[in-house]
Design brief:
With 739 residues, the chain is of the alpha/beta class. 58% of the residues lie in helices and 7% in strands. Strand 10 and strand 11 (589-590) form a beta hairpin.
């Protein structure tokens, strides 16, 4: 049964309309799919049939499950091979005689022995396995040994059996009809070695008369026929009934094991249409045991055992001659054929399993290589691009934060310059300078001017935050684009949605947390940035210097600095300011308690002087005129500038005791920059985590594919080696069979 296996997939023939689709799913041909002989498992695997299909085993079960299911079968097969070897080396031969009930098995055995030893009745009477040996094997004594159940038999050890007289055989069998027994029967055969089957002078032969198949012992008989101690199976079938279902099942199993069977068609003389009977029986034998049919002339005999026992029968003599030849002369068939058949079947099963698993291993190898070709370049690209991604993200974070910070400083500095000039920090609709109410409402006017200018600064802060939102949005878009550029396909992109309006939250918890981290940035810090300037009482407080800034005017006219931006040209306000400033200074010292007293004394002395009285009147007149001009002409326009200068001085001046970034502009610039950096860092962190997880996943895929490739290559090599070794063993078996 040499087989040149192809590993191409062939369709399952369960449904013709699906044959083309299933063609790619099968691992072996349908003709081979049912060729499991030794490794057949009693399983049902869905629509593909039984466990005889290796394709079904490999495709529908896990590898570990297949190994566990077949492990016991393979171990049992190895034990069976060892026992077959022992049987081949053993010179004795065992012949099993079995068949259906009332087929005449016991009559046939008696005819072979030329003695009426086995019980014969119209009712089924043989319920025991009676193994007949030559009395020479029992020191020439004719007797019956009843074997004890569960104890290995040894003729030398009487504890393993019970002796009985041969005449008691029929009563023992009848009394124990429902008990399955094993009996050893030792007989003397007076015939010559050329006529006797038991005492042939060549090999020791034992005849085993088995119970009928369609009794409860049918399964035991079928198993017995497969055991290694049986060399020849003689199957007795009634010419009247032909082969029953149980007989067909037994013959099919036995022919797979022995290949050649010796078939006796008993009660043939009672058949009227003998030609039809012969034809029908041979057709059934051809289906059940093809090798037996090929040698039907020697292995299939049509006889009548009952008449042969009473008188000579040529057909029975031919049967005896063929059986002696098959057992004694053609030992290659009777002795070696069961072993070679079993080995051939075993090697066939190994071929099927190896071929199917080799295809699976090759498929896994191809899949592993495909996975490597897909995953390894992606992993290498990610490794090479990881540093570039980190640098790009850091650049986006730094650029966005710096840009937001610088833009905030530009907007706030421009706003403070405009406020210092008495203008709104930013020009927006709905915000205008208050109108001058007249001299009587000058104090309230100064207060409203201060509030309006502070509100414009607050609006400038909001504009700076809006600019930061735009800059941050651009940075977030860049981070998302970096994700598209660096994340491999199949990796889920970030679902985070950036909401610019959520930046610069004034939530109490957020302010509290930020205040713990940096006291200069939120309410309660140096500039209490959490509260708008237009709502702070300390900034809204109006003083006399908001109306008339003496210090500023004095600094313009008496300071040595030439870089003043203010126009120092003489005006009525300047004259009044100078005059008033002169009165507040005596001897170049600022007025104090002592200075005031000294000034009063000197002023009294001065007025007592004749010369001083001459120019005092013009000075007082100038003061009066200047004050009048000031209140009439300059006051409505000077108050905004005065208030603006004071606001600018308050927000811009840097105290030597404060750090550099504690000024109003620096504090807001730092806050805005940090907020932008926080958002960009969160987006960057999310991308880094996705990138890291994706790279770890690709790394696991590569390692898994490499491990699968290594195992698959090893499996392919091992299965090919097993296939070659099995082929060598098959050649040896075939050469022995041919010889």
């Amino acid at each position: 049964m040499a087989r040149s296996m192809t590993l191409a997939s062939i369709a399952d023939e369960t449904a013709e309309e699906q044959s083309n689709e299933e063609d790619e799913d099968r691992l072996v041909a349908p003709s081979d799919a049912a060729d499991f002989h030794v490794f057949r498992l009693d399983l049902k695997l869905g629509s593909h049939g039984s466990s005889s299909s290796p394709a079904a085993l490999v495709s529908q079960l896990e590898k570990a499950s297949i190994a566990n299911l077949l492990d016991d079968r393979i171990g049992a097969s190895m034990n069976h091979i060892n026992k077959l070897r022992q049987r081949v080396e053993d010179k004795s031969s065992k012949v099993l005689v079995t068949g259906d009930l009332n087929a005449g098995k016991s009559t046939f055995v008696n005819a072979l022995l030329k003695r009426e030893v086995m019980p014969v009745d119209q009712q089924p009477c043989t319920t025991a396995f009676c193994e007949v040996h030559d009395a020479a094997d029992n020191d020439g004594k004719e007797e019956l040994h009843i074997l004890k159940e569960g104890i290995p038999y040894s003729r030398e050890d009487e504890s393993t059996y019970t002796r009985a007289d041969l005449s008691e055989l029929e009563s023992i069998v009848s009394e124990n009809e429902n008990v399955q027994q094993m009996l050893k029967v030792y007989l003397r055969d007076a015939r010559s070695p050329t006529e006797s089957l038991l005492s042939n002078g060549i090999v020791d032969i034992s005849l085993i008369d088995a119970p009928g198949l369609n009794r409860d012992s049918m399964k035991t008989t079928a198993v017995f026929a497969r055991q290694e101690e049986i060399d020849v199976v003689v199957f007795v079938v009634s010419a009247e009934n032909h082969f029953t279902l149980s007989a067909k099942e037994f013959l099919w199993n036995a022919s797979n094991e022995k290949a050649y069977l010796f078939i006796v068609v008993n009660k043939y003389e009672q058949i009227r249409d003998k030609a039809k009977c012969r034809r029908l029986v041979l057709e059934q034998i051809k289906q059940l045991s093809p090798r037996t049919f090929e040698d039907a002339e020697d292995l299939v005999h049509f006889v009548d055992s009952a008449s042969a026992f009473q008188k000579d029968s040529q057909s029975f003599e031919n049967l005896e001659s063929s059986l002696r030849s098959f057992v004694l002369v053609k030992r290659a068939k009777s002795k070696l054929t069961p072993a070679s058949t079993y080995l051939t079947h075993l090697l066939s099963d190994v071929d099927l399993l190896v071929g199917a698993n080799a295809i699976v291993a090759e498929t896994e190898l191809e899949r592993a290589l495909e996975d490597l070709n897909r995953s390894r370049p992606v992993l290498e690209k990610m490794k090479n691009g990881r540093e570039a991604l980190d640098e790009s993200l850091e650049h986006v974070e730094e650029a966005g934060s710096s840009r937001s910070r610088m833009r905030t400083k530009e907007i706030l500095n421009d706003a403070l310059v405009r406020v210092g000039q008495g203008k709104l920090g930013v020009e927006v609709s709905g915000l205008n300078m208050p109108s001058y109410p007249g001299f009587l409402g000058i104090w309230e006017y100064a207060r409203e001017v201060r509030k309006t200018l502070l509100t414009s600064v607050d609006i400038a802060v909001k504009l700076a935050e809006d600019e930061a939102r735009k800059i941050t949005s651009t940075g977030v878009d860049k981070v998302f684009q970096l994700g598209e550029d660096h994340l491999p396909e199949g990796v889920e992109r970030s679902r985070r949605v950036f909401m610019p309006e959520a930046m610069f939250s004034t939530d109490k918890l957020a302010r509290k947390k930020a205040r713990r981290q940096s006291g200069a940035l939120l309410a309660g810090g140096v500039y209490t940035l959490g509260i708008s300037l237009g709502q702070r009482p300390d900034m809204l407080e109006t003083t006399f210097f908001d109306i008339f800034d003496v210090q500023h005017q004095f600094r313009i006219h008496f300071s040595d600095k030439s870089s003043e931006e203010e126009d120092p040209s003489l005006t009525a306000l300047s004259v009044a300011s100078v005059g008033l400033g002169a009165l507040t200074m005596v001897g170049g010292k600022a007025l104090g308690v002592r200075g005031v007293i000294e000034g009063i004394v000197r002023l009294t002395d001065l007025l007592g002087n004749q010369t001083a009285r001459k120019w005092a009147a013009p000075v007082l007149g100038a003061l009066t005129i200047g004050a009048a001009v000031y209140f009439v002409l300059e006051l409505p326009s000077s108050i905004p500038r005065t208030v603006g200068r004071r606001i600018q001085a308050t927000l811009v001046k840097e105290n030597e005791e404060r750090v550099e970034d504690a000024s109003f502009v620096e504090a807001h610039a730092g806050r805005v920059g940090r907020e932008s950096r926080k958002v960009l860092r969160l987006a960057s962190w999310d991308l880094r985590e996705r990138f890291r997880n994706a790279m770890e996943e690709r790394g696991r895929e590569v390692r898994g594919a490499e491990d699968m490739e290594r195992k698959a290559r090893k499996a392919v090599e091992w299965f090919r080696e097993v296939e070659q070794r099995a082929g060598g063993v098959r050649c040896a078996v075939e050469s022995i069979a041919e010889a």
